Amino acid sequence: MIQGTLLCTVRDCRSPLTPGEGVLRCPRGHCFDVARSGYVNLLQPQDKRSKQPGDSAQAVEARRRLHEAGFSAALRDAIGAMLGAGAEDRVLDAGCGEGFYLGSLASRTGFAAHGVDLSVPAIQSAAKRYPQCAWVVANADRFLPYPDGYFTHLMTITARSHGAEFRRVLQAGGRLLVAVPSPEDLMELRGHGKDRTKRVVEDFRERFRLVEQQRATTVADLEQGAVEDVLHTIYRPMRTQPVEAMRVTFSLDLLVFEAV
Ligand SMILES: [Zn+2]
After folding, report:
1. Mind listing the domains of the chain with CATH numbers?
2. How many angstroms separate the alpha carbon of residue 17 from the centre of ligand 1?
3. CA 11 to chain centre
4. How far is CA 47 from CA 41, 103, 164, 196, 216, in A?
5. Which distant-in-sequence residues (6+ apart) come within 8 Å of 246 by Cβ?
6. 192: number of Cβ within 10 Å
7. How far is the CA of 138 from the centre of ligand 1 (A)?
8. In CA terms, which of 112, 124, 150, 227 is 20 to 30 Å from 89?
9. Residue 213 · residue 196 · CB < 8 Å
């Protein structure tokens, strides 16, 4: 479902798009097809570094199965509580993937939900699963196709960040939630990771003030198929040893900032 205002992504155009017959069009005549499932693809040729940018269909499906099995429910609940968005709010998920976090929080809370991702298979999957939200294929690293100050809340879950664009589309005092894998995330599969929180705070220091920080961790006993799915989501499906059922830790460092 396309709702609200989107901006044209043709280089330097940035005019508002208005809906027509199965398309969105800007006053200069740039035109984008709206898919039957309701999402719109605003990718420009320069955004497509590979033929299939972003997550592959296989990674999208693996991630969806893990979410549907409930392994991320505790993380989702922690994100929802820290985001603090209510029914009156307008929320953007930048790098939303197949839409689990945004879609399930929106159906619970009733906020206006907008998700952007570079991956066509991810956005297709999101639009089918969560039709009440607005889904857009675009390169969030380059330009977020929304007007200045459009959102009250923005979240980005283990995705790349673009501080200047995040600040531009957030209203003054708006909340930004950044989730990064904690050092414990998937440690049974890839060992202890690094702490990424200092780097995040440093990256956002000019435009955002850190107001809250918390680690959300959940442990799950995974069947062999689910372990394989996890490996697909981190692009490590090829292992010398066949995988076995095992206990796996999912863990995110959550940081909430206020736009200044
Ligand atoms: Zn245009």
Report:
1. 50-259 (3.40.50.150)
2. 8
3. 23
4. 12, 25, 18, 27, 33
5. 188, 221, 222, 227
6. 10
7. 14
8. 124
9. no
Distance (Å, whole) CA 75 – CA 53: 27
Q: Which residue has the tokens 């920080």?
A: 213
Structure tokens at 144: 């977020």
* 91 Cα to the center of ligand 1, angstroms: 24
Q: How far apart are CA 55 and CA 164, in angstroms?
A: 24
Q: Is pTM, for the whole model, over 0.85?
A: yes
| Cα 138 from chain centre | 12
**Which residues share a beta bridge with 153?**
91, 175
Could you please report the per-residue DSSP string of 196-214? Answer: -HHHHHHHHTTTEEEEEEE
Contact 40, 34 (CB under 8 A): yes
Q: What is the pLDDT of residues 90-144, one digit of tens each?
A: 999 999 999 999 999 999 999 999 999 999 999 999 999 999 999 999 998 889 9
DSSP code at position 14: -
